[in-house]
TrEMBL record:
NCBIfam families: Rid family detoxifying hydrolase. Pfam families: Ribonuc_L-PSP (PF01042). This is RidA family protein. Gene3D superfamilies: RutC-like (3.30.1330.40). Signal peptide: none annotated. It comes from Mariniflexile aquimaris. PANTHER family: 2-IMINOBUTANOATE/2-IMINOPROPANOATE DEAMINASE RIDA (PTHR11803), PROTEIN HMF1-RELATED (PTHR11803:SF58).
Length: 126
């Protein structure tokens, strides 16, 4: 059985999907981009600010499912420019205890929704 997870503390979906699906003890988040849920504006002032907003959006989705970053077992990071990898990695890493960090892949893509620079999705298990 699946449970739909949605919170006003993260951006509303911009298509036919939900912020996350909880199936049993496993949470599958949709990819988050740097939309500030309070203003509905993109946060693109710097790659650091953009990545931080993405992670804050993911944190809100995890919290809506009564989870934290400690529950994350897998992350997928999509970036438009591999030259931003180190900066994105630093911000992303600040949300995790390195000894308990999830598995992850980072992939450069040709284009992301709304022409953002980074999108991240996660799988978490309680």
């Amino acid at each position: 059985m699946k449970k739909i997870i949605n919170t006003a503390k993260a951006p509303a979906p911009i298509g036919p999907y939900n912020q996350a699906i909880l199936s049993g003890n496993t949470l599958y988040t949709s990819g988050q981009i740097a939309i500030n849920p309070e203003t509905n504006d993109l946060v693109l002032s710097s790659i650091e600010a953009e990545t931080k907003q993405v992670m804050l959006n993911l944190k809100a989705v995890l919290e809506a499912a009564d989870m934290t970053f400690d529950h994350v077992v897998k992350s997928s990071i999509f970036i438009s420019n591999m030259d931003d990898f180190a900066t994105i990695n630093k911000v992303y890493g600040s949300f995790f205890d390195e000894s308990n960090a999830p598995a992850r892949e980072t992939v450069q893509v040709a284009r992301l929704p709304k022409n953002v620079n980074v999108e991240i999705s996660m799988i978490a298990v309680k």
